[in-house]
Amino acid sequence: AAMLRRSLWLFLYLCSYPGRGLRVHEYLYFQVLSPGDIRYIFTATPAKDFGGVFNTRYDQIYLVPADPPEACGELNNGVFIQDQIALVERGGCSFLSKTRVIQEHGGRAVIIADNAYDNDSFYIEMIQDSTRRTADIPALFLLGRDGYMIRRSLEQHGLPWAVISIPVNVTSIPTYEMMQPPWTFW
C-alpha cells in the first residue's frame, strides 16, 4: 500500500509540473542479479549526444568496476572489461574520454556513476566534450548513491564484478513487484 501511495504521489507530482516532469524514454533500467544484497532495479540516463544505444539485451553480463575508478587512462583490470560493461566513477576527465577508454578496452558499454556518493536524485546530463572524438558504445549515467552501494557490496563480498541484466523493461513489471533500491525515491 505504501509503494502504491508513493507511486501515485510521484505521478501526481510529475503531472503538476509538466515542464519538470521526467519522460520515460530518457531512462534505461538495469537489474543487479548478483550479489543478492543489491538485487535491485537501477535507473540510468543515456549520454545526450555521444555513444551508442543498446541494440542487444543482456540477460547476464558482468558489471566490472574500473581500476582506477575514474578510467581516464590505462586500466589495471582492462582484461576483465573486454566484452563486459564497466562501472566508472565521474571525475578526472570528460564523460566522452571515459567512454573511449572503456571502448578501447573492448567494453560493450559504460555506466558512469556520480562521484557524489550522497547523490540519490540528481541526474547529470552527459554531453560531448570540446573535441571532435566519438564513441560507439552506450554510455549511461548512474546516481552516486547507487554506484557507491554497488561498489560497496562488491567490496564486502570480495567480488571483482556484479552480474546484471540490461536493459530491463519496467513497463511490464507491476509497481508493487519492482525491486527498487530502498535508498532511492522513484
UniProtKB/TrEMBL annotation:
Residues 1-21 form the signal peptide. Keywords: Glycoprotein, Secreted, Signal. Residues 63-147 form the PA domain. GO terms for cellular component: extracellular region. It comes from the Eukaryota. Pfam families: PA. The keyword Glycoprotein applies. SUPFAM superfamilies: PA domain. PANTHER family: PROTEASE-ASSOCIATED DOMAIN-CONTAINING PROTEIN (PTHR22702), PROTEASE-ASSOCIATED DOMAIN-CONTAINING PROTEIN 1 (PTHR22702:SF1). Plays a role in the modulation of physical activity and adiposity. This is Protease-associated domain-containing protein 1. It comes from Rhinopomastus cyanomelas (Common scimitarbill).
